[in-house]
Amino acid sequence: MHRVIHLAEFGSGFVNPGPLVGAVLVKEHNVIGEGYLKTYGAENAEIVAIKSAKGETYGAELYLNMEPSLDKGGMELILKAGIKKINVGIINPKFQGENLSVLRGKGIEIELGLLKEKCEELNEIYIHFITKGTPFVFTKWAMTLDGKLATRTGDSKWISSEESLNFVHKLRQRVASILVGENTVKIDNPMLTTRLRGVKISNPLRVIVSKYGNIPDESNVLSVDKNTKTLIISSERIPEHRESYFLNRKVDVLKLEEKNGHIDFKDIIRALGERGIDSLYIEGGSTILGSAFESGIVNVVYAAISPKIIGGKSAITPVGGEGIDLMRNAIVLKKVTHKVVGDDVIFKGYV
Fold first, then answer.
1. Could you tell me the CA-to-CA distances from 68 to 1, 16, 115, 120, 168 in Å, in that order?
2. How would residue 162 be classed by pLDDT, with cut points 50, 70 and 90?
3. Domains in the chain, start-ordered, CATH in brackets?
């Protein structure tokens, strides 16, 4: 099952909004076939594993991290191959175990729950999207040991180590969309693309929150091609000439209602979900992160802490907004883990 999970991860960034699925076919303690879901709508992992099998498949066991969908001829192939047992990590929330019941009815033994927690974490994006209909939301920031996002002059390059930056690009590879506000575009002029060596790259949809389209025309995020897309989320009151400018540059515009002078994050994720976007990585600055937490839409937090101290009362902290009034009302993360990456420590926790 560890091998299954490893295989499934090769689909990261390419199967959205589908699940990450791997498959291993075993007979007499030997792996005779394996596969994974390569892209959304491609051949199912179990089909690839059975088709790749070397030798006789009759009496073999199939290992899957998630309940199979049984479409694209999967049911017929499993039966024809003579699979005697299927070991599954978790049920697919789309099918609620119905497909496992069908397989049992065909005389195939089913064992459910192998590496259950790891399988759930692997597909936390998919599970959330299928059950909620909105994107699974990550936030990530890099800060100094004294809790600063940038110096008092706004300089933030580079707080974290090169290894931490590589970790960021792995997150970008995993998600369907990445979001920043217009201030980040103005100050940093980021590309917001995925840059990893030795692997096939998937760029997330770049989502820019800009109420009235006030971002420089030379911004990198306005350069789009078939592999790099941008969506501007604006107010319904965006000037017509700015909307037309973006559209002429093949940049999409999504207009949402202003509420109390700002665009509500709950409206943003609802609209993204309706577009089939299953995950959102917020890499914005203090203001955007503050709004995200105040709206209650964040699911997971990654915080990279660098062993640097810069001080300064006016230096920017990661999460802005009004803030919590009393410590007893603080947001307390759950299932917190951490690991050392380069010189930094990266914390992960669930809201």
1. 15, 16, 16, 15, 31
2. confident
3. 2-125 (3.40.140.10), 134-350 (3.40.430.10)
Q: Which residues pair with 31 in a beta bridge?
A: 26
For the stretch 269-317, pLDDT in tens is 999 999 999 999 998 788 899 999 999 999 999 999 999 998 988 888 8
CA distances from 188 to 59, 170, 180 (A): 58, 20, 11
Identify the pLDDT of residue 156. 79
All residues at 6 or more sequence positions from 101 whose CB lies less than 8 Å from its CB, including other chains: none
Nearest of 125, 204, 137, 136 to residue 170 by alpha carbon: 204
Q: Which residues are catalytic?
A: 46
Q: Which of 124, 42, 56 is nearest to 89 (CA)?
A: 124
Kind plus residue range of the DSSP H or E element containing 22: strand 22-27
pLDDT digits (tens, 9 = 90+) for 55-105: 899 999 999 999 998 887 888 999 999 999 999 999 999 999 999 999 999
Give me the sheet containing 334-341, strands edge to edge: 252-256, 230-235, 205-209, 177-181, 279-282, 136-144, 300-306, 344-350, 334-341
**Residue linked to tokens 């047992």:** 85
Strand, coil or helix: 21: coil
Strands 136-144 and 334-341: unpaired
Gap between the Cα atoms of 309 and 317, Å rounded: 13
Other beta carbons within 10 angstroms of residue 320's beta carbon come to 17
Q: Tell me: the pLDDT tens digits for 7-47? A: 999 999 999 999 999 999 999 999 999 999 999 999 999 99
- The pTM of the whole model exceeds 0.85: yes
| Six token digits for residue 286 | 């203090």
Q: In the numeric block, which tokens belong to residue 32?
A: 């005779």
